[in-house]
Write a structure and sequence with these properties.
By secondary structure, the protein is mainly β. Helices cover about 10% and strands about 50% of the residues. The chain is built from four helices and 27 strands. A hairpin with a 4-residue loop joins β8 and β9. The longest helix is centred in the middle third of the chain and has 12 residues. The protein starts with a strand and ends with a strand. The model has no long low-confidence stretch (mean pLDDT about 90).
């Protein structure tokens, strides 16, 4: 893809998104805004701290950024802040700490909730919240990919997106299955591709996953690889999940798969009823951290807008982060 330019003064962006004429890069608790035209710097929004309009940073819990046509949300461990596009604070809402990845849908919100059962197993659930962020109902749950000293190195992330005021939940432990709900949490229909072939995990895949894991913040947080491997028994599924990540853009959903060819990754462009409009191989992107992967957090190092695929590339020789673009047509 063609290089658009460099995200100046950004050391390690965790999320990039494109909206209107701007590019938003999230690093820690700070959102840097650039012009899409020439990547010139526009402004910074948000900062770390525990005071008003500040985002509390907690180890392993990354801030989440969502950009909407009229406002921006930044979600920390304990609150959700709405910013205007000029960076001014519109509102701050305290949130329950067990609820993560909050996205508006109609008058409500949808989010993930971490829960433990009486048998000691851990689950991650999709819950519907009201405007005060109180839980209205649970829509789905699946087993959390780490518990009791066991760790899935290739976790099956619980991905979800909101598009056209509908909630799309990736129920991939059941294969290629996406369940669609309205903004009140009523199930509308399912998208099931029984003929989608999931890829068998080979030793080479396992070795690559472990290599990625060695550089993960969680490993660094525990001090050393030796200490990390003493804490966990590694588990691997027989096949990759059908879907790696999901993103909504316009009236389509972009499904990132685990299918690779010549160093590129297969994406499926799908309409809201589940019809596959296009299959396209795109450059390999930087993966989410292990914790973000386990929770299926909406963290993206790529973005789609107006049939263009934007993605971050680390230029290690001069320590810059570049934004590249490829046409989807």
């Amino acid at each position: 893809g063609a290089k658009l330019g460099v995200l100046k003064d950004v050391m390690k962006p965790e999320t990039v998104t494109v909206d209107g004429n701007h590019v938003y890069g999230l690093e820690g608790a700070t959102i840097s805004v650039f012009s899409l035209k020439d990547l010139s710097f526009v402004r910074k929004i948000g900062k770390a701290g525990e005071g008003p309009a500040e985002l509390k940073q907690v180890p392993f819990f990354t801030i989440l950024l969502n950009v909407f046509p009229k406002y921006i949300t930044a979600e920390s461990f304990d609150e959700l802040i709405h910013f205007a596009k000029d960076g001014s604070v519109l509102k701050e809402i305290e949130k329950p700490m067990e609820v993560k990845a909050i996205i508006p849908v109609g008058k409500n919100f949808v989010a993930k909730k971490f829960k433990r059962s009486k048998d000691g197993n851990q689950y991650i659930a999709v819950v519907l919240l009201n405007e005060k962020l109180e839980i209205l109902k649970e829509l789905y749950q699946q087993k959390f990919p780490a518990s009791r000293g066991k760790l899935e190195v290739i976790p099956d992330a619980l991905n979800l997106v909101v598009c056209d005021d509908k909630i799309f939940i990736d129920e991939s432990p059941k294969g290629f299955l996406i369940c669609v709900f309205d903004s009140a949490g009523k199930e509308l229909y399912q998208i099931h591709k029984k003929d989608f072939k999931q890829i068998k995990i080979t030793q080479a895949h396992k070795d690559y996953a472990v290599k990625q894991l060695k550089g993960d913040p969680m490993v660094k947080g525990l001090g050393s690889w030796e200490r990390f491997t003493k804490n966990f028994q590694f588990l691997y599924p027989e096949t990759f999940p059908a879907i790696d990540n999901m993103m909504a853009a316009g009236k389509n959903i972009y499904l990132k798969t685990f299918v690779e060819k010549d160093g590129k990754t297969l994406y499926l462009v799908m309409d809201l009823k589940g019809k596959i409009l296009k299959k396209v191989f795109l450059p390999r992107v930087i993966k989410r951290s292990l914790v973000d992967e386990q929770f299926g957090m909406g963290k993206y190092t790529y973005a789609v807008k107006d049939d263009k695929f934007y993605y971050l590339v680390e230029n290690e020789s001069n320590e810059d982060w570049e934004l590249h673009v490829e046409n989807l047509n």
